[in-house]
């Protein structure tokens, strides 16, 4: 299913399980079902398929920043809402607000065949601002408690240059241990550029 949001200059398409995505009054809402996740365990042997979760993704051109305030209806450990980028079936990354496992935490996963997993900082409540940026093959993750001062979380590359040019970016929901959760994204913003400085809070 294709979805157009007035805040974004590119169309989005649904991937994975049905996320029951809706958009109303500037708020995007998605649902994760029971035991839905996007993670390839690093302890695996490399032949198991990647787990899947609802995703809503599009393909912006050139440099960009995608920003949203993410609010998660936490019920179970590792329930999360995420901004997500993908250049291949085993080359993708997510910037999450996650119940990890009993406190809201900004965390990241970068998958190059297998997934890694890293926590950043904890959050009071169930909302945080997330930002994913791209220039060339490089991606940057930032998070903010107030939408004004940004904390640098991660800088990385994904895939080959020819793949990264067709990168998909957007939104993902997950509930790997539970019976599902709802995630909302508001204050959506798209900027056609790369941040001037990754570490100065801007």
From TrEMBL:
Organism field:
Streptomyces humidus
Name the PANTHER family for this protein. REGULATION OF ENOLASE PROTEIN 1
Say which domain of life the source belongs to: Bacteria
What's the protein name?
Answer: DUF1349 domain-containing protein
